[in-house]
Amino acid sequence: MTPDILDDYISAHIDPEPENLHRLYRSTCLTSTYPRMCTDHLQGRFIKMLTRMIRPSRVLELGTFTGYSALCFAEGMAADGEVVTIEVNDEMEDIIRESLANSDVGNKVRLIIGDAFDALKTVDGDFDVAFIDANKRDYVDYYRNVKPLIRRGGFIIADNTLWSGKVVEPDENADAQSRGIAAFNDFVAADSDVEKVILPFADGMTIVWVKEESL
Ligand SMILES: C[S@@+](CC[C@H](N)C(=O)[O-])C[C@H]1O[C@@H](n2cnc3c(N)ncnc32)[C@H](O)[C@@H]1O
């Protein structure tokens, strides 16, 4: 059985992709130079389900792109929940604002256009969940900067942490993104203040739980 057939099978046996997200995914594929960056149907339903399980009030996202994953978090949250999402590329702003306007839950998403490192200095802490999905070279520094903003008992989720399997390549052959992700995986593995798993799903998703008691 080919992976495509399995993908179709999975899509037919999970919750359908909401119409607005289906249209957003299609238009991202048609208009973006790097459509693979967009969350897809399965990963989007997973993010929504995970959000339902965690029941966060506040989610912080680094890397909005066209807004797909931010809307999946918003879908899973209570009506008064808030997703703060940060995107450095100001050319995406109109597309993101249109995606939010086309969604019933877009009002829960607050967009910050700017560099994540600058924006993180301006947001108040006590987030329940952070989703790291911006520049792969900077994952370790994102983690260092985001962790103090997460409440004890909260979660950090990082996307693309297997990076098409390139994380296991020797350093001398690896590009900067692969090295960035590999360094992140090593850094998290060595952090005894958190529990962590890597899910070999999509392009690899790491889920980190910040222990209730600090060390
Ligand atoms: C993989 S895409 C995000 C995909 C989106 N989370 C989704 O799942 O649909 C990465 C995004 O991070 C943005 N980005 C890269 N470096 C950034 C930075 N330093 N601060 C904020 N955003 C950044 C890129 O412009 C790009 O839109």
What would you note in describing this structure?
The chain is of the alpha/beta class and 215 residues long. The protein has one domain: Rossmann fold. 39% of the residues lie in helices and 20% in strands. It is globular and about 45 Å long. The N and C termini lie far apart (48 Å). The structure holds S-adenosylmethionine. The site of S-adenosylmethionine has 18 residues, from helix 4 and strand 2.
Key features of this structure:
binds S-adenosylmethionine, 215 residues, Rossmann fold, 7-stranded mixed sheet, alpha/beta
Could you write a compact summary of the structure shown?
The chain is an alpha/beta fold. The protein has helices spanning 3-13, 19-31, 41-54, 68-76, 93-101, 116-120, 139-146, 176-189; strands at residues 58-62, 82-87, 109-113, 127-132, 150-159, 194-199, 205-210. It binds S-adenosylmethionine.
Overall geometry? globular
Structural class, from helix and strand content? alpha/beta
Q: Please tell me the overall pLDDT.
A: 95
**Structure annotation, total helices:** 8
In the CATH hierarchy, the architecture is: 3-Layer(aba) Sandwich
Give the helix proportion (percent range).
25-40%
Strand arrangement, major sheet: 3-2-1-4-5-7-6
Beta strand count: 7
N-to-C SSE string, H for helix and E for strand? HHHEHEHEHEHEHEE
Number of domains: 1
CATH class: Alpha Beta
